[in-house]
């Protein structure tokens, strides 16, 4: 049966997060906005993930204002965001009232599709965000994080998808954040999900191991409906397959996307010029096929940032050792899928193990919180050595982690008094208190407004 394949374009979010450490400025997005709006994408990913944090921290820009400006410049195209469930756009669980208020405000400012995931595939950590997003009347993609381990199987991923469908989501997303999904595995999992769940399936992958273009073709044969791609200058490497590549491959077939290659070519010309502005954030792995990701499992968005962090510590030569240590830490933690925040937890602990020269001589607080169950239920058992070191005679929590949190908005409003100018500022403070304070002071001319980390060369 002929079926047009739809495209989500990632250049304004995940593509630059993966390739230039999330540093693209709004001023480089707006000049091309009208051309992007004219293409006919199923959706444009414009917000969420690390962009909220990076926009404040490094660029001293308002993420809320970015969303409004992009929405005004692109009125025709669906806007999509990545929402980390109970983690929202941060790195730990937030109270339900913060999650609910954030979702409502994001919808008001122009988000049409909420892609909601949890790093542990723990449905409890997605429940509040899904319910809040459905309440806005927007589309909700319930997300299954793909990974490879002894405890993950096609039936496991189907089970997560079925639970999400039962919660009322309108789409299922299979999220392959590290680019590990092989072609025949993609076919098997997608075929299984599509045979049991009558919802559109959206596939997200990365080219880190060079598998994604082949996996996309097999996904189409298995019944996938929407695929994530990035315009060529911000594609490949740790990013997504090129939009033009997929459009050309399907042209004239029963799956023709209907997108115009000439129009895409003009957008590509613009972004080739833009990418040169961010040369200092390029990762040495951007143009390599790294099949060792099948071992390290590090997601595309984290790899460029890990390189940047090691470079700042003059320890870039330790990258291979950190990547080699990550699968050992991941096994000890019960094989969590590696995506924010679990990728940061595993990556940071692996870096500590390498830097100190002795495994777990220093255990990061985030690692301790993970073992305590504060991030959710691990997919597999945590190692006895890790439990003994972190828990002693204590037992990990078994409830939904957010049940332990008090409401946070009123406290954030009190704590940000004199700095916050509106409800969006209060939400920003609730998510990132220290970063928000620095941003507010710089915005109001009371800080130094230092932007070295986000400046252009």
Question: Overview of this structure, please?
Answer:
This protein has 457 residues and is of the alpha/beta class. The chain has 20 helices and eight strands. Strand 5, helix 7 and strand 6 (171-175) form a beta-alpha-beta unit. Helix 5 (96-108) packs parallel to helix 6, helix 7 runs parallel beside helix 8 (183-196) and helix 18 packs across helix 19 (423-431). It starts with 5 loop residues before the first strand and ends in a 14-residue tail after the last helix.
Arithmetic mean pLDDT? 92
* End-to-end gap: 51 Å
Strand ordering within the main sheet: 1-2-3-4-5-6-7-8
Number of strands: 8
Gyration radius (Cα, Å) is: 21 Å
Global outline: globular
For the report, how would you describe the main beta sheet? 8 strands, parallel, barrel
Short note summarizing the structure:
The protein is of the alpha/beta class.
Task: Kindly list the characteristics that best describe this protein.
20 helices, alpha/beta, eight-stranded parallel β-barrel, 457 residues, 44% helix
Architecture blueprint of SSEs:
Layout: E1 6-9, H1 14-19, H2 33-37, E2 43-48, H3 51-57, H4 63-73, E3 79-83, H5 96-108, E4 113-116, H6 127-135, E5 139-145, H7 154-166, E6 171-175, H8 183-196, E7 201-204, H9 212-222, E8 226-229, H10 243-250, H11 261-276, H12 293-296, H13 300-312, H14 319-332, H15 342-356, H16 365-371, H17 384-391, H18 409-415, H19 423-431, H20 433-443
